Structures are given as C-alpha cells and as structure tokens.
C-alpha cells in the first residue's frame, strides 16, 4: 500500500510504534501521509536503541518498493528478521527463513540501502496536525469510488469533493464542455461530526475542496482491501484528510486544495 502511495518515504522506528511518513514538501505536490503500526501486533521480539534515552527513535529514508519486494518473499516464511546493518553503507537487512522441501531451511537476505536521517531534520517529520474539519463523513466502498474517479480523470485533471452532515458526498468535474457529478447518499457521519461545532449549521450545507484528481487516484489505487473504517474530513477550500483503519494499521492521507 505504501509503495503505491510514495516512491520514497521515511520509516520512523520507536520502542512501541513503526511509522511510514511522507511529508508535505512541494515535490510531492503537497501531499502528506502518516501511517502507523503498533510493533507488538507484528513482532514477537523487538529491540531498538535510539539516539539517546530521551530521543529514543530512529528515522530512515528508503525506497518503499524495495522494502515491499523484500517482504513479498517472506509470505510463506518460517521466520522474518529485520535489522539495521552497515555494509559499506547503511542498510535495512531483511532475513527470510524459508522452508525447503527437505526439513532444512534456507535463509534469503535482502540488503535495502537507506539514509539515516539526522536529528536536526526530525522536526519536519512529526505527525501532521489535523485542523477541525467542516464536514466529516464515512467514505463509500473505495473500489466503487476508484472506478468513478478513473473515468472522470479522462475528462479533467481537477475534481471537487463536496460533502455535508446529512451523509451525502459528491464528486464533481467541470470543463467548458461538460459537467459530471457522481452522488453518494446515506453514507453516514461520525457522531462527533454531527453534534459538535455544527449545531447551528444547516446539515445539508456542502463543504468542498478542489483537488488534483491524480492525487486522489493515487490514494485510491493504494487501497488493496476495503478498510475497517474509512473517513473523509473536509476543511473547506483548504484540504481533504482521509483517515483509514486496516485492522492493525492506521493511515492518514492529506491532499491540499489547488490554489
């Protein structure tokens, strides 16, 4: 999933969590991502030592596809070990213990080159602050949404996402020749969104954000399975924030509005 969302990303390792991070540099078109895994849900044994006791973290930059490819070889493995090594240059070494036809096992090792990120750059890699959304709404089935957006991309590069507190979400494109809107109804809004700041607001009022359709499609293409929870938070004319939960993995993805 991460490899589809970000060519290179930062892996943050701390005693209890792993994070895959893409920060909102203009090079990414302002897109940012924060993906979080609780290490105890994935590893039987976990040892890490950060820079110091109070900065007990490690930040690495890597090519996501390299890690994804290495882990794919471990699908039927007996054991998998990931460690930080130095082989003339820093590496994330993935050792996979595979069962062979005879009872003996064989070890396959992948050395993935990485860059260790110095502490002075950590401040740019913290969890993004989510501004209060104007509308928070559950997403429709992502596969359906993806096929709609794929068709729209043939007509326009820009898309408007709009939603309200009455469970309605629309995807709109407009060109000089044509205007196309897809309506999703009865999606539901999370309880807080309907109660909190919006008591005095018309629930049918739409909040909207105008975004690059390719950024949305890249996000949707990265979703291989429908998540346990999928939320869309719209900050009117500023950004759209997707908040997904896949069993043990949470993913936040931010797409800024086009200026």
UniProtKB/TrEMBL annotation:
GO terms for cellular component: checkpoint clamp complex; cytosol; nucleolus. It is found in: Cytoplasm, Cytosol; Nucleus. Its main location: cytoplasm. Keywords: Cytoplasm, DNA damage, Nucleus. It holds the Pfam family Hus1. GO terms for biological process: DNA damage checkpoint signaling; DNA repair; response to radiation. Component of the toroidal 9-1-1 (RAD9-RAD1-HUS1) complex, composed of RAD9A, RAD1 and HUS1. The 9-1-1 complex associates with LIG1, POLB, FEN1, RAD17, HDAC1, RPA1 and RPA2. The 9-1-1 complex associates with the RAD17-RFC complex. HUS1 interacts with POLB, HDAC1, FEN1, PCNA and RAD9B. HUS1 does not interact with RAD17. Interacts with DNAJC7. Belongs to the HUS1 family. Component of the 9-1-1 cell-cycle checkpoint response complex that plays a major role in DNA repair. The 9-1-1 complex is recruited to DNA lesion upon damage by the RAD17-replication factor C (RFC) clamp loader complex. Acts then as a sliding clamp platform on DNA for several proteins involved in long-patch base excision repair (LP-BER). This is Checkpoint protein. The gene is HUS1.
């Amino acid at each position: 999933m991460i490899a589809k969302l970000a060519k290179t990303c930062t892996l943050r390792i701390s005693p209890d969590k792993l994070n895959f991070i893409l920060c909102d540099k203009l090079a990414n078109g302002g897109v940012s991502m924060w993906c979080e895994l609780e290490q105890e849900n994935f590893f039987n044994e976990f040892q890490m030592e950060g820079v110091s006791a109070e900065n007990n973290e490690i930040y690495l930059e890597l090519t996501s596809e390299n890690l994804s490819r290495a882990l794919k070889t471990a699908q039927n493995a007996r054991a998998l070990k990931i460690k930080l090594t130095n082989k003339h240059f820093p590496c994330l070494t993935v050792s996979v213990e595979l069962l062979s036809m005879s009872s003996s096992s064989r070890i396959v090792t992948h050395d993935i080159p990485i860059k260790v990120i110095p502490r002075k750059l950590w401040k740019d890699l913290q969890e993004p602050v989510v501004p209060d959304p104007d509308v928070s709404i559950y997403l429709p089935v992502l596969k359906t949404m993806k096929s709609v957006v794929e068709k729209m991309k043939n007509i326009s590069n820009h898309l408007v996402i709009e939603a309200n507190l009455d469970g309605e979400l629309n995807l709109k494109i407009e060109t000089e020749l044509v205007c196309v809107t897809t309506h999703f109804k009865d999606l539901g809004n999370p309880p807080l969104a309907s109660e909190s700041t919006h008591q005095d607001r018309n629930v049918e009022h739409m909040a909207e954000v105008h975004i690059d359709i390719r950024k949305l499609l890249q996000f949707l293409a990265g979703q291989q399975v429908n998540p346990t929870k999928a939320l869309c938070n719209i900050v009117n004319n500023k950004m759209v924030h997707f908040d997904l939960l896949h069993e043990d993995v949470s993913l936040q993805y931010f797409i800024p509005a086009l200026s």
